[in-house]
Design a protein that fits this description.
- This protein is an alpha+beta fold.
- It has 3 domains: 115 residues, no CATH class; 167 residues, D-amino Acid Aminotransferase, Chain A, domain 1, CATH 3.30.470; 60 residues, Dna Ligase, domain 1.
- It contains 11 helices and 16 strands.
- The strands form 3 sheets. Strands 13-12-9-10-11-14-16-15 form an 8-stranded antiparallel beta sheet.
- Helix 6 crosses helix 10.
- The two termini are 36 Å apart.
- 41% of the residues are buried.
Length: 355
């Protein structure tokens, strides 16, 4: 069945907003426009990418992916197909309705409500608890959800270097590391987050060794592993780039540091099927982390984040495993002068450069 891909990277912000109507801030809107053809690298031959016009059709055809563009004018005539946005939210469903997408090809309002519920960061708490049951109680500390500013302050004071996170946010947004208990801006941020979203998720700081993720596809209650990604976060916990290589090479890189990774993946598959896949069809990524345990061994945080959407790690995995590229994937404010461009020339550019 033909899939219709749609790049809407502002979807995490739309989930946080919660409304049917959402207007992306200028930077997010620019990113959506400039990287609109990025999903073509995830697509299969015969699929289409939703764009406002066909300006970049020649560029896309030159990539040899067998993927074409579809415009909103063509949507009402569709009888079969599957919409695959970067992420689902109330606002995304409403946007596709307004563009003319047939109602029978969209997820029901009830399924969208399930996405909104599962995208809350408390899902990571449920994942931690189930994974402790499956793998043993000696996993990393479980995050906690707190509902008052006093409770957050008290917890942060007891856990120096901890991370505070808003319930709905992603890609490093809505994350604040507590480095100074007298930081007035921090507590203003917490107060606003509690007022808007009702709680704050609190996580202990760990001595990080390696960030990585597992990429999954949920279908009809099952969860299938479709790739690994190894990536870097910057000081602000925002995505800074990923390694493009084969599935096996990325798995080996992780297993070299943590030989028990396959057991963790098996447990994660069970946890996703029990907690998420019953109510969600689509891509998801689970951010994970290796860290130095206080007793000296390398330990695993099996669920730093659950991202109910496509991810940049999924792109890296597809580029390496399906398209045979190797190097480092980055999104930059201008095309890389020597890198392989993955999107037409624009202000923002996605590219792979030699490692």
């Amino acid at each position: 069945m033909m899939k219709i891909w749609y790049f809407n990277p502002e979807n995490d912000l739309a989930l946080a907003n919660g409304g049917l109507n959402y207007t992306a801030p200028p930077r997010a809107a620019q990113l959506r426009h400039d990287l609109r053809l990025l999903p073509a690298w995830l697509a299969s031959p015969g699929d289409r990418v939703l764009c406002n016009d066909v300006t970049d059709r020649d560029w896309l055809l030159q990539q040899g992916l067998g993927v074409d563009i579809i415009t909103p004018v063509e949507l009402p005539s569709l009888s079969v197909g599957e919409f695959v946005p970067w992420g689902w939210s109330r606002a995304t469903r409403r946007t596709l309705q307004r563009l003319g997408a047939p109602e029978h090809l969209l997820p029901s309002a009830e399924r969208i409500e399930a996405v909104h519920r599962l995208a809350h960061r408390r899902t990571s708490i449920a994942m931690h608890r189930l994974l402790q049951h499956l793998m043993g109680p000696d996993l990393c500390p479980t995050p906690v959800e707190l509902f008052t500013l006093d409770a957050v302050k008290d917890w942060a004071a007891k856990h120096p270097g901890c991370y505070l996170k808003l319930p709905w946010s992603g890609s490093g947004q809505g994350v604040y590391r507590v480095l100074d208990m007298n930081d007035a801006h921090l507590w203003q941020w917490c107060h606003g987050g509690l007022r808007r979203q009702g709680s704050i998720l609190c996580e202990q700081g760990l001595e990080r060794i390696q960030d990585f993720a597992t990429e999954w596809l949920c279908r009809e209650g099952t969860a299938r592993l479709i790739g690994f990604s190894v990536f870097e976060n910057d000081f602000h916990h925002q995505y800074a780039g990923g390694i493009v290589d084969s599935h096996q090479a990325l798995h080996s890189r992780i297993a070299m540091l943590y030989p028990d990774i396959d057991r963790a993946v098996d447990a994660l598959s069970q946890a996703i099927e029990q907690l998420i896949a019953t109510d969600y069809d689509g891509h998801l990524g689970v951010d994970m982390m290796l860290y130095h345990h206080p007793d000296g061994h390398i330990a695993l945080n099996p669920c730093v984040e659950v991202n109910l959407r496509c991810t940049m790690g999924l792109v890296c995995s597809a580029l390496g495993d399906r398209h045979g590229l190797r190097g480092t994937y980055r999104i930059t404010a201008a095309p890389h002068p020597t890198g392989r461009s993955l999107t037409p020339p624009a202000h923002f550019a996605a590219s792979v450069t030699d490692s």
